[in-house]
Structures are given as structure tokens and as C-alpha cells.
Write a structure and sequence with these properties.
This protein is α+β, with helices and mostly antiparallel strands and about 150 residues long. Helix content is about 15%, strand content about 55%. The structure holds myristic acid (MYR).
Length: about 150
């Protein structure tokens, strides 16, 4: 289960990923030590997420398969959705500013929650039904940088 409190433990390739996304050095340094904590409460296909970090504290509600808006800590606006496939949470989020697509997965491995983030050139895939199409197309459009953020139960 994803329920519980998750604190960032370490990142893998996160700074390089942010560089590729066009985030400047000062922001990258701050973001890679953001003390991110997420509290996940899942009830059926509904999620309530409390996100807190050095940057902000926000609460997010979403339903699996339903598109919602979300902003990154630097203000970049996204729209997209999470779906669940087996035990894997798969997200597809479109950047409103440049139309690029961020895909992300959350999986639990032992006592860790592993979030993988990738960026693709494919624009405007915002519908939940597009998730599988995107995961199929990804190998052709992959920008070549992905990152991991690894959380431990807190
Ligand atoms: C949530 O479930 O916590 C809310 C929605 C999260 C969307 C995540 C989108 C991809 C993350 C990209 C991070 C890139 C930072 C430069």
C-alpha cells in the first residue's frame, strides 16, 4: 500500500534531469535538497496527498484515471493523470508551457517508494487513455534523461 508518510532519502540523476528540463542552477541546487515529504491517503481509486518541502506545503486530491492540474515547485504548470497498473502507479503529465510530457511511476520496493521521472517530446497527451499509448511510444521519443527520487517511510 502507498498509504503513509514518505520522506525523501536520496535522488538518482535528479540534477541532470532538471538541467534538461531547463531549470537554472540555483533552483536545481535548492530542489535537490528540498526535504520533500509526501503523506499519501488512498481510499479506493481516490488519493489525498499532503506534500511538504522547503518550498511549500500543499494538498492534492486526484482520482485514478481522471485528469487534474498540478504545479511543480518552480511554478511549472502540468495537467495529467495517474493510473494504477497492478501495483504500479503510472502518471502522465503534460507541461502547459512547452507541451513536453513528463511520465512518472511510483512503485514500492521493500520499505522504499521509488518515483521514476522521464521527459518526452510527445506533446498534448493529457487523457488517461493516452497513458498506454505513451508508454508504448516512449522508446521513440525519449529525451534520454530520467531520474529517480527514493523515499523511505517516515
Ligand atoms: C502527487 O501525486 O504527488 C501529485 C502529482 C505529482 C505529479 C508529478 C509529476 C512529475 C514529477 C516531475 C518532477 C520534476 C521536477 C523537476
Amino acid at each position: 500500500t502507498y498509504n503513509g508518510t514518505w520522506k525523501i532519502d536520496r535522488n538518482d540523476n535528479y540534477e541532470k534531469f532538471m538541467e534538461k528540463m531547463g531549470i537554472n542552477m540555483v533552483k536545481r541546487k535548492l530542489a535537490s535538497h528540498d526535504n520533500l515529504k509526501i503523506i499519501i491517503e488512498q481510499t479506493g481509486d481516490k488519493f489525498h496527498v499532503k506534500e511538504s518541502s522547503n518550498f511549500r506545503s500543499i494538498e492534492i486530491d486526484f482520482t485514478l484515471g481522471v485528469t487534474f492540474d498540478y504545479s511543480l515547485a518552480d511554478g511549472t504548470e502540468l495537467t495529467g493523470a495517474w493510473t494504477m497498473e497492478g501495483d504500479v502507479l503510472k502518471g502522465v503529465f503534460n507541461r502547459k508551457d512547452n507541451g513536453k510530457t513528463l511520465t512518472t511511476t511510483r512503485t514500492i520496493q521493500g520499505d522504499e517508494l521509488i518515483q521514476v521521472i522521464q521527459e518526452y517530446r510527445i506533446p498534448s497527451l493529457t487523457h488517461p487513455e493516452d497513458v498506454n499509448r505513451l508508454f508504448f511510444l516512449q522508446s521513440y521519443n525519449y529525451e534520454g534523461v530520467d531520474a529517480k527520487r527514493i523515499f523511505k517511510r517516515g
